[in-house]
Amino acid sequence: MAESDDGMPQGRRAFFREAFTKIVQPVAEYLDAQIGEHLPAEKTLLRPPGALPEALFLETCLRCGNCVDSCPADAIQSWQGDLSDLAGTPHIDPDDQPCVVCDTLECMQVCPSGALQKLLVHEIQMGLAEVNDDICLRSNGVNCRDCIDSCPIGERAIRIDSEKRVEVLPVDCVGCGVCQYQCPTTPKSIVVRPIQEYAEEQTG
């Protein structure tokens, strides 16, 4: 049997290449689909604490960058995408850096237009975390508590339920994204959906 440059028989080399492709391609296609679903778009941008409803927020926000510059966690970013109505607006990507719900809530204090309203912590509703039990480590026999132990709100917002699964409590979850950031799975088994998505579902 002819050999390739690395000394492996060509037939065997082709077999392993085909097997590798069969394994990797479905994974790659799955990840591409996940990335496509989570590409930032108008309805999926996670706004900073205190943000007005999306349509009013876009009208009110001055794109001044005060909240971006003042965020002690460097969690707030200016949107750099192609959609002109979103350009320069502040948002948070929990995969990069979540909101940590800091004591001073500085972003609200420095907003000159009122696009970010001054709220108490328990009044903040940036979004809501959702758990995918199919890929959560706890569903696979691993006693992981990363999302719970890192939550700045604590077990009022997220806890282990009676079936030993992660349970998000909608009343107190503020949607900061710390749980998503800390989740060790790929793709993430807990993801924050921006609050405007829920508003659209209720009105739609």
Give a description of the structure.
31% of the residues lie in helices and 11% in strands. By secondary structure, the chain is α+β, with helices and mostly antiparallel strands. It has two domains: 1-37, no CATH class; 38-203, no CATH class. The strands form three sheets. It has a two-stranded antiparallel ribbon. A hairpin with a 5-residue loop joins β4 and β5 (166-168). The chain is globular and about 50 Å long. Residues 30-43 have low confidence and may be disordered.
Task: Write the SSE topology.
Layout: H1 10-37, H2 54-60, H3 66-70, E1 76-78, E2 90-92, H4 106-110, E3 127-131, H5 146-150, E4 158-160, E5 166-168, H6 178-182, E6 190-194, H7 195-203
Antiparallel strand pairs: 1-2, 3-6, 4-5
What does this entry show, briefly?
This protein has 204 residues and is an alpha+beta fold. The chain has 2 domains: 1-37, no CATH class; 38-203, no CATH class.
Rg on CA atoms, Å: 21 Å
Query: Into which percent range does the helicity of residues fall?
Result: 25-40%
What is the residue-averaged pLDDT?
85
How are the strands of the largest sheet arranged?
1-2
Distance between the termini: 65 Å
Main sheet summary: 2 strands, antiparallel
- Number of strand segments: 6
Order of helices and strands: HHHEEHEHEEHEH
What best-fitting shape do the alpha-carbon axes yield? globular
Bin the strand percentage: 5-15%
Contiguous runs where pLDDT drops below 50 for at least 5 residues: 30-43
In terms of structural class, how would the helical and strand content be classed? alpha+beta
> Number of DSSP helices?
7
How many domains, as an integer? 2
